[in-house]
Amino acid sequence: MTPDPITQYSQQLTRRRFFGNTGTGLGIAALSSLMGTSESIPAATDLGAPHFPAKAKRVIYMFQNGAPSHVDLFDHKPGMAKFHDTQLPESIQQGKRLSTMTQGKEQKVLSTPWKFQPYGKCGTQMSELVPHMGSIADDICLVRSMHTEAVNHAPAITYFLTGSEMPGRPSFGSWLSYGLGSANDELPTFCAMTSVDRELSCGQIFYDWYWGSGFLPSHHQGVKFRGNGDPVLYLSNPNGIDRKLRKSLLDDLAALNNLRQQEIGDPEILTRITQYEMAYRMQASIPDLTDINTEPQHILDLYGPDVMRRGSFAQNCLLARRLAEKGVRFIQLMHAGWDQHNNLPTQLSVQTKDTDQPAAGLVRDLKQRGLLEDTLVIWGGEFGRTPFCQGDMHNKKQHGRDHHPYCFSLWMAGGGIRGGMTYGESDDFCYNTAKDPVHVHDLQATILNQLGLDHERLTYKFQGREFRLTDVHGKVVKPILS
Question: Per-residue pLDDT for the chain (482 aa), expressed as one digit of tens each?
């Protein structure tokens, strides 16, 4: 007979978790956080984290849902022009698996219609569609040899953010919350924001597990900021409830929850108490944080004309900088609209116009404040786009590129990453990696390394196994580190 969850929990209770929960419980029993002397949620200090001196204190991950076309934005292959509208050589395809939309169908080379040019002192070639990103070329490391196994959006995004294509694992920010703890008592350790392209051309869904805590204690999950209504759900008090009364109610509720926790030992009751406490503090901190009217005009101008529109990628980038200033460890910006199967000639320019300036503006803003040095900024999607055409090549409104996992581009800046460089190479058709391949798990290991975490030691025992973000893979990409 399977034991009930509480009995099962007590049977699996480790010395590490017992002392961690005991320390948390004593702090909660005093209700000190509600009295203005709160302590941060503890990190997994029994893991010895951080494992070594960190180059970065925080991460801002600008995740581009739908997969930007590396062929048209970052990976210049002028030689493809002479193969335009001809069948992609079989020697390049190598029989690799593609999505069912193009698997086994005609695959004619589609050379990019946009011009590339060198940017910065480093001379990195980028598309005319991303001039603002080009203007920060000397600050970024452009990786042109990313690769993954997933060929569809949700599994591929989940793979990047949790280390597994299947939902249920902790997301990246949750691992950092668990490993390093909080740096601010009044804000979550992990925040997420979403936005979509203005034309709503893409139906990508933002699943909650993209910022979920998986099997980690649920206080490590990301808090989603919304683009309309209250910035965070239930931030406002109900009608007739003022802040003093709300505090009194939470005091009583915390005391009752603590008594229940002492009785049955359910760790999720501890989470419930800490989440109520955090919500109370956020009622005071979030309104000021999200009021961007206090920003001077020259700062607003960095992020572009869309910065004052709530829920836009531009405004989310500005909020990310404000969260970084407050000590939030992991800020996840997710922007959908890159899934251009049949509207590449018309939609890609719209998408880059909405995202190019805000992304570059964020890097510039961090740099001028001295924050870029210890903030790791990442920009990229879940895979790339095929170098061959999908749809009618001769109809600009009915063609695009399919999903492509075997080679694509991503860039990083700050946080101990070498700027002004490219790393890795693709073949002559942007199809396969030709030099220095970087896998999803390698990227994850490298990010953790910059935060002072050994990806092989940041583990959590669940169902009898020690899990980690990088599963049983991953190596730090040392040549890109400063």
Answer: 444 445 545 555 555 455 544 444 444 333 333 333 333 445 555 577 799 999 999 999 999 999 999 999 999 999 999 999 999 999 998 888 888 888 878 899 999 999 999 999 999 999 999 999 999 999 999 999 999 999 999 999 999 999 999 999 999 999 999 999 988 878 889 999 999 987 776 667 899 999 999 999 988 999 998 888 777 776 777 777 777 877 787 778 878 888 888 888 887 787 777 777 777 677 777 888 889 999 999 999 999 999 999 999 999 999 999 999 999 999 999 999 999 999 999 999 999 999 999 999 999 999 999 999 999 999 999 999 999 999 999 988 899 999 999 999 999 999 999 999 999 999 999 999 999 999 999 999 999 999 999 999 999 999 999 999 999 999 999 999 99
The answer to whether the beta carbons of residues 168 and 209 sit under 8 Å apart is yes
Which run of H or of E encompasses 65?
strand 58-65
Q: Which domains does the chain have, with CATH numbers?
A: 49-231+290-480 (3.40.720.10)
Could you write out the DSSP letters of every residue in 95-127?
A: T----TTTTTS--BB---SS-EEEETTTTEEEE
The pTM (predicted TM-score) of the whole model is: 0.87
